[in-house]
Amino acid sequence: MKIVIFAGGVGSRLWPLSRKNTPKQFEKIVGDKSTLQLAVERLQPDFKYEDIFVATGKSYVDIVRKQLPDLPHDHVVGEPKMRDVGPAVGLMAGILTKVAPDEPMVILWSDHLVKNEKHFRKILKTAGEIITEEKDRIVFVSQKPRFASENLGWIKHGDPVSSRNDIPFYSFVDFKYRPDSETAKRYLTSGEHTWNLGYFVTTPDFLWKKYQKFAPDVYKGLKEIVDSWGTDNFYEVLGKIYPDLEKIHFDNVILEKLDPKDAYVISENIEWSDIGAWEALKEALSEKEKDNVIRGNVLVEDSSDSLVYNIGGKSLVVGIDLEEMVVVQTDDVTLVCPKSSIPKVKKFVEKLEGTKHEHLA
To answer: Which of 87, 125, 307, 313 is the S-S candidate for 282 at Cβ 3.0 to 4.6 Å?
Structure first.
């Protein structure tokens, strides 16, 4: 099996820790390793470094290689310009058609937390077994929902169609991205909806053909790039063509057009969390909802359900009577806001561009 881990986002919802020059996936948000390093580490020992690829931005290639020194040099692919997930996934699918076209390919993301690592690896290997036998399929790996999330995508699945290694495979029905509150509550109790993690297993050849069919213009540009893979002028061709590709999400370019009969769904509890925003990190690290999550030189008193991070700040951070708050201190910025206001952080960071504070974005 080949693994592709995407590590190219800026992650402004985790500002001021995550910034353009040092995005969240390269920061030590949980423990003493970056989330990218944790994403690779949780694959061990079942997957070898020579089978792992990382797709990132051109300016982050050196960071990736430094954090993952055991990764083969050419397995870090740097996009010259961000063109959203559609072209990004297509590029890696195309490259892997040159490497192992009929071998199972796993798509993962670098800014997630998975606590049940052993079961996660079992799921990936089991999905790989299915794809080895049914090469013209795609298997979505999802998380059984813990709460009625309005911020995540959901997958609707049908009845189990098979089982392997005590893992049921369900038929695929439909996607829904970020439902409203009432819809999310209905999904939670339905028994036929599960969180969409953006994880899936398929073959490079199957996915590459879908680009050719559903997105011929994107495919044409990607094919010219892919044809240069393994040559000395790969990055020259990539830099010339990739920035002009249509900026489009993978869901729009492929998944919305996918025949449901071509897909299976695995819905298991891998104790997954999206830690791409402060309130999500708080939920992931809390044993109980009302627990505080603190890190660094911090003291809190008479406080609950709050996250207080002191990252690089030299002074002590003290919180008293905090309730559902987020406090993040770095060496040059202090963020204070209610958890409910975290969605506004990204827009605030965008407003810094063109101001005297632009260097903080």
So the answer is: 307
* Same domain as 134, residue 81: yes
Tokens describing residue 54: 């990382």
- Helices assigned H by DSSP within the chain: 35-41, 61-67, 85-99, 117-133, 181-190, 204-214, 216-226, 234-241, 250-253, 278-285, 343-351
257 CB neighbour count, 10 Å cutoff: 12
Q: What is the DSSP string of 289-344?
A: TT--EEESSEEEES-BS-EEEESS--S-EEEES-BSEEEEE-SS-EEEEEGGGTHH
**Co-location of 256 and 156 in the same domain:** yes
- Residue 348 in any domain: the answer is no
User: Is the domain of 262 the same as that of 285?
Assistant: no
Structural Rg of the chain based on CA atoms: 21
Instruction: Among 277, 312, 327, give the residue marking a domain's end.
Output: 277
Are residue 268 and residue 297 in the same domain, yes or no? Answer: no
Residues 142 and 239: beta-carbon distance below 8 Å = no
Cα 36 → chain centroid? 10
pLDDT for 187-198, tens place per residue?
999 999 999 999
Domain count, the chain: 2
Token pair 């009625």 in the structure block, residue: 148
Can you read off the two tokens belonging to residue 22? 């040092």
Give the structural domain span for 157.
Answer: 2-277
pLDDT digits (tens, 9 = 90+) for 228-286: 999 999 999 999 999 999 999 898 889 889 999 999 999 999 999 988 889 889 988 98
Nearest-angstrom CA–CA distance, 141 and 105: 13
Alpha-carbon gap, residue 287 to 291, rounded angstroms: 7
Same domain? For 165 and 289 the reply is no
CA distance 92 to 7: 13
Q: How far apart are CA 108 and CA 110, in angstroms?
A: 7
pLDDT tens track for 84-135: 899 999 999 999 999 999 999 999 999 999 999 999 999 999 999 999 999 9
Whether residue 311 sits in one domain with residue 249: no
Indicate whether 349 belongs to any domain. no
Q: Distance (Å, rounded) from C-alpha 68 to C-alpha 49?
A: 9
CATH, residue 228: 3.90.550.10
In this structure, the answer to whether residues 264 and 302 fall within a common structural domain is no
